[in-house]
């Protein structure tokens, strides 16, 4: 395939996903402009990501800090933003702050403190109050032992503690649904995340309205249940190789 064909191909895939997002939003009377598509580019080569940028994709999600850093030089456009959607080890926090605009996977107060502490060391002009760094709290709604995330019962306490960290801003909640046979199987997980968010916000806790939920197999159900961020990989870029990076096995469903 020539570069030009590949851009056309990626543009068509992007537009198809956007159309499906708009239809899902429509079904429940939501404005599709209120939902952000994060193109998940783990295992997608930097060069192909550059073409994805030409095809109109602007927000990218990676699950590894190192992989994002390696690919970022290929996308120099200033209106591109990057979300971390994979687990963050404490020794990678400094690099993650540099590489990402949003960290979606904060799953402990300890990790939040570590991010805040490193941000505290970032220079700001003396007359400027620092803009807080946006994070989402990852919640393990289904108590799936294979998944990261705070237990729903622990989110309130975590929010109260994180509210004291002045360099962070919790924009919302994120979840990775468990593997289900059909998209409908994810609906109750997504609904539970939204209800948790509504309940916590009603208590006046410092929590923004973002809900990051839904992937290739179930993003339409997620939008029907209130997702403001959907994370879509395969519907844009095709199937991934089964093995990824340092030997971790990718979830192929
Ligand atoms: C890989 C991944 C996605 C995208 O999954 P697809 O099924 O390819 O859409 C979304 N979120 C997270 C956290 C991921 O790791």
Q: Roughly how much helix do the residues carry, as a percent range?
A: 25-40%
- The shape, in one word, is globular
Q: What Rg, in angstroms, do the CA atoms define?
A: 18 Å
| Average pLDDT reading | 93
Strand order within the widest beta sheet: 7-6-5-4-3-2-1-8
Order of secondary-structure elements: HEHEHEHEHEHEHEHEHEE
Please provide the count of β strands: 10
Named once each, the bound ligands are:
pyridoxal-5'-phosphate
Helices and strands: which structural class?
A: alpha/beta
- In DSSP terms (H or I, runs of 4 or more residues), the helix count works out at 9
Strand content: 15-25%
- The assembly state of the depicted protein chains is single chain
Distance between the termini: 27 Å
**Biggest sheet record:** 8 strands, parallel
Describe this structure in a few short sentences:
With 253 residues, the protein is α/β, with parallel strands linked by helices.
Structure notes:
The chain is an alpha/beta fold and 253 residues long. It is 37% helix and 17% strand. Helix 3 links the parallel strand 2 and strand 3. Helix 1 packs across helix 2. The two termini are 27 Å apart. 39% of the residues are buried. The site of pyridoxal-5'-phosphate has 12 residues, from strand 8.
List keywords for this structure.
253 residues, alpha/beta, eight-stranded parallel beta sheet, two-stranded antiparallel ribbon, globular, binds pyridoxal-5'-phosphate
Could you outline the blueprint of secondary structure elements for this entry?
Blueprint lengths: L2 H25 L8 E5 L5 H9 L4 E4 L2 H7 L9 E4 L8 H7 L2 E5 L2 H12 L12 E6 L16 H8 L5 E7 L12 H16 L7 E3 L6 H6 L4 E4 L1 H4 L5 E2 L3 E2 L4
Parallel strand pairs: 1-2, 1-8, 2-3, 3-4, 4-5, 5-6, 6-7
Antiparallel strand pairs: 9-10
Helix pairs in contact: 1-2
The chain binds pyridoxal-5'-phosphate.
């Amino acid at each position: 395939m020539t570069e030009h064909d590949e851009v056309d191909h990626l543009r068509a895939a992007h537009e198809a996903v956007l159309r499906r997002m708009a239809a899902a939003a429509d079904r429940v009377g939501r404005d599709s402009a209120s939902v952000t598509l994060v193109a998940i580019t783990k295992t997608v080569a930097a060069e192909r990501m550059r073409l994805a940028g030409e095809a109109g994709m602007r927000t990218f999600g990676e699950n590894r800090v190192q992989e994002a850093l390696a690919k970022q030089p290929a996308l120099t456009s200033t209106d591109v933003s990057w979300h971390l959607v994979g687990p963050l080890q404490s020794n990678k926090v400094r690099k993650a702050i540099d590489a990402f605009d949003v960290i979606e996977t904060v799953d402990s107060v300890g990790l939040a403190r570590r991010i805040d502490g490193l941000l505290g060391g970032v220079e700001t002009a003396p007359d400027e109050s620092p803009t807080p760094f946006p994070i989402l709290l990852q919640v393990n709604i289904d108590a799936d032992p294979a998944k990261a995330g705070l237990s729903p019962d622990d989110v309130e306490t975590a929010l109260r503690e994180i509210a004291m960290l002045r360099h962070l801003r919790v924009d919302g909640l994120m979840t990775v649904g468990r593997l289900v046979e059909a998209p409908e199987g994810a609906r109750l997980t997504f609904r539970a995340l939204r209800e948790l968010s509504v309940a916590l916000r009603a208590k006046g806790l410092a929590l923004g309205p973002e809900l990051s939920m839904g992937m290739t197999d179930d993003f339409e159900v997620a939008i029907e249940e209130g997702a403001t961020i959907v994370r879509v990989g395969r519907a844009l870029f095709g199937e991934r190789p089964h093995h990824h990076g340092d030997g971790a096995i990718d979830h192929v469903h």
